[in-house]
Amino acid sequence: TELEVSHWWTSGGEAAAVTELAKAFDASGDKWKDSAIAAGGGGAAAIIISRILGGDPMGATQLNHGRDAEELIKAGLLQDLTDVAEKENWREIIRPSSLLDSCTFEGRIYCAPVNIHSPQWLWLSHKAFKDAGIPVPKNWSEFIAAAPALDKAGKLPLAVGQQAWQSNLTFNAITIAISGLEPWKKVYVDKNAEVAGGEEFKKVFEAADQARKISAKGKMQDWNAATAMVIKGDAGGQIMGDWAQGEFQLAGQVAGEDYTCLPGLGVTEMISTGGDAFYFPVLKDAEQTAAQKRLAALIIQKDTQVAFNLKKGSLPIRGDVDLETANDCMKKGIKILAGNNVLPDLSQVISADTMSDLEDLMVEFWNDPSMTTEEAQERFVKVIARAD
Amino acid sequence: MKNLNAKIASIPMIFTALVIFVGCTAWTIYHSFTNSRLLPNNNWVGFDQYERLWDTKRWIVSVGNLAIYGVCSLVISVIIGFVLAALLDRKIRFEGVFRSIFLFPFALSFIVTGLVWQWILNPEFGVQKVLQSLGWENVTFDPLYNPDLVIYGILIAGIWQGSGLIMCVMLAGLRGIDGDIWKATRVDGIKTWKTYIFVIIPMMKPVFVTALVLIASGIIKVYDLVLAQTSGGPGIASEVPAKYVYDKMFNAQNLGQGFAASTMMLVSVAIVLIPWAYLQFGGKKND
Amino acid sequence: MTDETNLVDGPRGPKPKRAFTRRNIFVYGTLLLFAVYYLLPLWVMVVTSLKGMPEIRMGNIFSPPVEVTFQPWVKAWSEACTGINCDGLSRGFWNSIKILIPSTIVSILIASINGYALSKWRFKGSETFFAILVLGAFIPYQIMIYPIVILLREAGLYGSLWGLVLVHTIFGMPIMTLLFRNYFTGIPDELFKAARVDGAGFWGIFIKIMLPMSLPIIVVAMILQITGIWNDFLFGVIYTKPDLYPMTVQLNNIVNSVQGVKEYNVNMAATLLTGLVPLVIYFISGKLFVRGIAAGAVKG
Amino acid sequence: MQSSISIRDLKLSFGSFDVLKNLNLEIGKGEFLVLLGSSGCGKSTLLNCIAGLLDVTDGQIFINGKNVTWEEPSDRGIGMVFQSYALYPQMTVKGNLAFGLKNAKVPKAEIEKRIARTAEVLQIESLLTRKPAALSGGQRQRVAIGRALVRHVDVFLFDEPLSNLDAKLRADLRVEIKRLHHQLKNTMIYVTHDQVEAMTLADRIAIMKGGVVMQLDSPSIIYNRPANKYVADFIGSPAMNFYQGTLDKDNNFRGDGLSLSVTGYPFEEGRVAQNQQVWLGIRPEHIRSADAAQQCAVQMGAIVELVEPMGSDTQIWSVVDKQNYRFRVDGQTEMTEGDSIRIGFDPENLSLFDRDSELRL
Amino acid sequence: MQSSISIRDLKLSFGSFDVLKNLNLEIGKGEFLVLLGSSGCGKSTLLNCIAGLLDVTDGQIFINGKNVTWEEPSDRGIGMVFQSYALYPQMTVKGNLAFGLKNAKVPKAEIEKRIARTAEVLQIESLLTRKPAALSGGQRQRVAIGRALVRHVDVFLFDEPLSNLDAKLRADLRVEIKRLHHQLKNTMIYVTHDQVEAMTLADRIAIMKGGVVMQLDSPSIIYNRPANKYVADFIGSPAMNFYQGTLDKDNNFRGDGLSLSVTGYPFEEGRVAQNQQVWLGIRPEHIRSADAAQQCAVQMGAIVELVEPMGSDTQIWSVVDKQNYRFRVDGQTEMTEGDSIRIGFDPENLSLFDRDSELRL
Ligand SMILES: Nc1ncnc2c1ncn2[C@@H]1O[C@H](COP(=O)(O)OP(=O)(O)OP(=O)(O)O)[C@@H](O)[C@H]1O
Ligand SMILES: Nc1ncnc2c1ncn2[C@@H]1O[C@H](COP(=O)(O)OP(=O)(O)OP(=O)(O)O)[C@@H](O)[C@H]1O
Ligand SMILES: [Mg+2]
Ligand SMILES: [Mg+2]
Question: Among B178, B191, B198, whose Cβ lies nearest the Cβ of E84?
């Protein structure tokens, strides 16, 4: 049975990973019909949601793993996968279990997670530090301390792309590193505005202010343009998710030799577990519905997970797979995961609306030096107070 | 019923006008008073969305940008369009070639336009680099990376894409001017530029109105261009209302907020347009 | 010659024309200056699309290619990937054509009927509908995306080619109707009256008299619609299915994909390839375009 | 005379502006009626109402005894010829002629026959395959007439058919239309601005003003016994000379520098009052000069102010006591500005109008 | 007569199409010259050359003795009035009048004075603050004339200034222009299609055809002694009657149904050959009918074919031996179609033209 699958994985590595899924699906006698839209999460959402609302949906679709789909589920537009999950024993095998929680609505399961991504990593260029004549830092504060030397050597200390989500990601990584876990949870999970306006976050904003000062000279848009600077040694470091290491790999660099990765910015060895998931809109055709369930089951299977995640450079959603070929950084990640030092992903705890507010705030803060930390924090408090 | 056929034939138009334009607008305005998120709902929240809207820096910046972009692009497009048309109307050689050159960008989409100009204005390898390599070491020309100038960088591309059409409209208008008027001014000994300013331009009022309508209907929608060139950056320096609407509706999944923003856009359009429409269609019955 | 010799001297024949008068320098200088501004991006697109990536990284964007390569064009046309399909723009090309032709025809047809009814068969309220329609040109289309999804669903057209045709017709209607109305208003009423006396009805007059006379304005309408429809990305992707995705979807994927390095040459080639159809139409119909605009657009 | 078209109490308003006000008109079978009037008086509007191209506000229209007020234009048995020709530009002459017949589903053979016949009558056989753009103005207008002709209609409506043509052509076509009328004997209603056309073509002329028919009469009555001052002034070129004055019961006219007895003037009955304020009008061609003036009942000395030679004759503007006297003399007559001359006229050629009502006395 | 404008060997071509071919013209100071000719004969082109609005292909133009061939229009001391008025629509009447002067940096007070004077001459004082859109056609044309007047130019060029106006207005303005000319005594060149205008206004008329002046003479000579058949046919309405025939050395004309002796005809010298093929032309007003015909040297019986009453007089189309004789009778004359009448004319009023060269004999 032919199933149309929508996603926004259009870059080289991503496409290769999707090909693995498609191959596996085709092998089982079904037909994967690829429908890729390079419009980023937002643009794609408009398209995907229109399709679902229009009554002529695709067979399966990538959707932001989180609360995105809640309303669609409530409107009865998404397929209930509980029977598949029970049959395949997802509760047991999916690790960390929070992944499945975000697929669950009122006790029923509506999506199949495919991978785990964690955004709180600091990537450092060995060449840049060698050129500046200083050792490679081991954590965030050492990195800050090294910034002037880098600057003097004509390097950009911290590379941050100008897109809003990158500013927000950077800020969030700094928050976890500076404030620690509790305040982070109070603000983002409990939406506690008092904490958001408190001392701890004041420090966070001051740290972010330092970070923005040392990144001010950067002029790139895309995250991989920033990564490219780190790879070339033109920039000291970048805060980016684990997907960045795909770029290092592609450039033939070796972790530990050419670059260093510091999960949790080397301060708190905690990572959050975002990732992608597939949703299955309700279809009228019974045969297609069966095919949807087959695909859902297939995604979770071990072989698929290995094949997919190796190409994608992300972590598998089950703890029982062995990625021998995984590199240094990936292994660091798996270890943290195994130790269950995990946080929920931002998109799981706040709504898309709040996320977009935060991004708007952060991108402005990052790019407008005249915005004081006080002002930024004040607005931050407002956003948190409004968050739901 | 003599006009029965005419009425039947007008059904698509009436349908579009009433159901799509009026209907959707009403629907939008209604839902801007709800807290609709991903899907429209009916939870009435009064003016909450508007309060939030006008409390949002990005929106304010967007409105400011649109104002700057709108005014500049109106003025500059009209000036460039008119000057070029006037030059082409001077019985020059290769008129067809020049006309095609000025008009061709209009065939390209904003996405393409944005991409090319993003590239030309990129300080790393665009105009700035070339100027610097030519010896002007200290030249900085990076409008897309300067929050104060970025909207003008977008303007350069917008003008490039759209002014050709305006040129065409102006040219058509100039061609419609009675040749005797030109003769009269020559006999009166009036300089060419004076003739344009004091005689020809005032005579072309309807042409200017058409041009303004064309430009204005494009301005309000400038979205693709910003997206392709700067994605609203640096920071939020080049955000525009249409992008705010789009992002809030689809990215933030906050339809209510998006609808409130688009209602504000509509209101501003209406403030500009309704007097014009009244004059055009309501005021004079015969035309 | 004559005896009044004093009259015979002096200038005779045409006033001598010098090529480099101040006026000519000003006129052609200004035109050339603007021509550079308009052509520069095209130049950049073309030369870049003919360069290899190494050369792009090295040189400046304005210099002509040292080594001309057509690889980027080949890649853009038939190799660039969209998801797991690596067949470049060629995948969507025929879809674009398939969308373009009916959309252009239907939207122009409907708009011309509207314009005709509005100019020659005014009925009570017709001007009001027209005013609403023109105001509709200023509505940001984002806000109509969802309602139209729902309308199309109810009409059973969602996801089909005809649904998209309908959408293009709706969004093209304001400006198109305006053009046709102005044009038809300019056609003498007497012609219309003569046809009525000759026993032609609403449709007879439209098809046999009005349409054959409206070539100039049809050219303008076609150019505007072809440009708009061909360059459309959003509607094509929102209101149809992957089987029907236009070429701009691939262009968008090629241009917007976050990959290791941006392949500028492929981007530019893809851009040029996508713009080719409207560009060709522009260059073919340049003169008619101005004439049509004169006939339909500038009579406020 | 059997009535071909009757118009009863016709009213037509555009919004609040009444163009036609309670207009009544009876047109006989085969009659050639000319509508004459200044611009904007409603001539075209009336024609359009008869043709059914405008919906009347009130009143009725009968053609050949049938109430056609609600009929479609094509069902009224009328043909219309427009000032701008209104030929279908993309069709050949033949196509233009055939269009109406095809619409009426006339058989092919019949169409061919009628076109051949019409082309012969109008001498446009050689033009049949051309398009209107390739025709001269006169040829176009002939085709436009043919288009009405070919449909075998009872009533022809002409809306200033000749005013786009130059003088020579106009004169030729005018004669042709007259011949055509003699030949076909159709009812024709003809709108024009041109007095010469009106005078030469019409069986009857209707002079309109402000949506009302001022006078409906034969050309000679209109010319010689205009019903009111407006008509008198409107018809005739150069225009009638007018002089203010009073008329006493002994039929003596007394005005500035002009006193005369109008005994013998054929008064319309009941129109004479005591010391009535009147206009006295004399047509220029009734003023005689030089020797001829000697035989006139009224004579005076005048100064020539302006001489306008027109070839066959000459117009003279002369002054008597600050009053202008315009008249015509033969083209051969020698007269120069400043000459003192004698002029005179006979009272029987006068027209008298009441000063208030402007009606003929 | 001192020459105000001389045109020497003027040639003008549009591409390969020669519009004016070696045209020579001398116009005296204060002369009123009318250019008359059919459409497309190059009248406007000639005017534009004189004004400097077209660059000549060859030849010279002198105004007041100065070679202005290469001058700018504004430096030639000319004013031009256009058919379409060409008023600046967004300026008031006053603005229109002042615009040229302001540009020439004439002092404010002087401008005011000149405008006041011009407005007075043209009687447009009350219109000064209006815009052209709020004026009637006649008023607009007056303003257009004023715009030339106010610049105190020596030469006025009029390009069909009255042809957009209706007949009555045209007649009035015609008289006004004539008065103006008497008053100002400027040189005026006036293009028109209208013979009446040409005859009444002109000191001399130049009849043009195909870029060449066919005849340049006073109106009466043009009318009475046309230089060739084209001029004879062009001038006069209704047009001259022409008959083919041969002329023997005894001055006997012999044509279809018409034989007469033309002894006493004032031949231009050296033009008579043996048995020359000629055209004989008679103006309609020289044909007499009824009693008057009895006194004519040539008489014949005719059948009335068409009667065109025009009010003051009536045109008759009659036939003798299949030849048409058009003539005019008084408006009072009773004549109906089919009547047998006697007509006649005197040979001294004839025109004779060579059949090949079409030149006057
Ligand atoms: N569609 C219309 N709407 C409003 N007023 C109109 C319309 N058509 C004509 N009129 C007015 O009606 C009056 C009569 O118009 P009509 O065309 O009948 O005049 P006319 O006698 O034919 O004049 P002309 O000699 O200039 O053709 C005019 O004052 C005109 O302004
Ligand atoms: N710009 C031009 N290019 C080519 N041919 C032209 C141009 N202007 C005029 N002509 C031609 O020159 C000839 C003379 O034109 P002109 O306007 O002088 O005629 P005219 O005597 O004024 O006619 P009308 O009485 O119609 O105004 C015409 O045959 C016309 O087609
Ligand atoms: Mg009319
Ligand atoms: Mg002319």
Answer: B178
Asked, for residue B151, whether it belongs to a domain, the answer is: yes
E176-203 average pLDDT score = 89
Q: pLDDT per residue over B255-285, tens digit each?
A: 888 889 988 888 888 887 777 666 665 544 4
> pLDDT per residue over D85-114, tens digit each?
889 988 999 999 999 999 889 999 999 999
Q: Determine, for residues D100 and C198 on separate chains, whether the beta-carbon distance falls below 8 Å.
A: yes
Picking from B52, B108, B17, the residue whose alpha carbon sits closest to that of residue A385 is B52
Q: What pLDDT, on a 0 to 100 scale, did the predictor assign at position C5?
A: 45
pLDDT given at position E27 = 92
What domain count does chain E have?
Answer: 2
Q: Does D116 share its domain with D129?
A: yes
The per-residue DSSP string of chain C comes to --S-HHHHSS--SSPP--TT-HHHHHHHHHHHHHHHHHHHHHHHHHHHHTS-HHHHHHS-TTSPPSS---HHHHIIIII--BTTB--TTHHHHHHHHHHHHHHHHHHHHHHHHHHHHHHHS--TTHHHHHHHHHHHTTS-GGGGHHHHHHHHHHHT-TBSHHHHHHHHHHHHHHHHHHHHHHHHHHS-HHHHHHHHHTT--HHHIIIIIIHHH-HHHHHHHHHHHHHHHHH--HHHHHHB-GGG--HHHHHHHHHH---SS--HHHHHHHHHHHHHHHHHHHHHHHHHHHHHHHHHTS--
Chain D: residue whose CA lies nearest to C212: D90
How remote is the CA of residue C120 from the centroid of ligand 1, in Å? 17
- Is C195 among the domain residues? yes
Q: State which of D11, D12, D14 you would mutate to test the pocket of ligand 1, scoring each by most atoms of that ligand within 8 A of its C-beta.
A: D14
pLDDT in the model for residue B79: 92
> Cα–Cα distances in Å, from B172 out to B167, B214, B287, D79, D85?
8, 15, 21, 38, 27
Q: Are the C-beta atoms of residues C292 and C219 closer than 8 Å to each other?
A: yes
pLDDT at C232 over 90: no
For B97-109, how does the pLDDT look when each residue is reduced to its tens digit (9 = 90+)? 888 888 888 888 8
| Longest Cα separation, chain A | 66
* Residue nearest ligand 1's atom 9 by CA: D45
Grouping H, G, I as helix, E, B as strand and the rest as coil, residue B78 is: helix
The answer to whether the Cβ–Cβ distance between A37 and C237 falls below 8 Å is yes
Nearest to D66 by CA among D82, D54, D78: D78
Looking at the fold, whether C128 and C42 belong to one and the same domain comes out as no
Residue E192 and residue E198 in contact, taking contact as beta carbons nearer than 8 Å:
yes
Dist. CA D48 → ligand 3 center (Å)? 10
Q: What is the whole-number distance in angstroms between the Cα of residue D39 and the centre of ligand 3?
A: 7
Residue B121 sits in a domain whose CATH number is 1.10.3720.10
Distance CA D56, CA D69 (A): 8
Measure CB to CB from residue D80 to each of C194, C199, C213 and give the nearest one.
C194
Same domain? C28 vs C116: no
Same domain? For C150 and C18 the reply is no
Chain D interface includes E319 (CB < 8 A): no
Q: Does the beta carbon of D264 lie inside 6 Å of ligand 1?
A: no
Contact B217 C286 (CB under 8 A): no
Query: Residues D162-185: what's their mean pLDDT?
Result: 84
- Residue B247 binned pLDDT confidence (cut-offs 50, 70, 90): confident
Give me chain A's average pLDDT, please: 83
Indicate which CATH number applies to the domain containing E302.
2.40.50.140
The amino acid that residue D294 corresponds to is: Q
Q: What number of C-beta contacts closer than 8 Å exist between B and D?
A: 4
**In the structure encoding, which two tokens stand for residue A325, read together?**
């070929």
The total domain count for chain B is: 1
∠ CA D59-D65-D68, rounded to 5°: 50
Domain termination residue (choose one: D176, D206, D233): D233
- For C4, phi then psi, to 5°, come to -80, 70
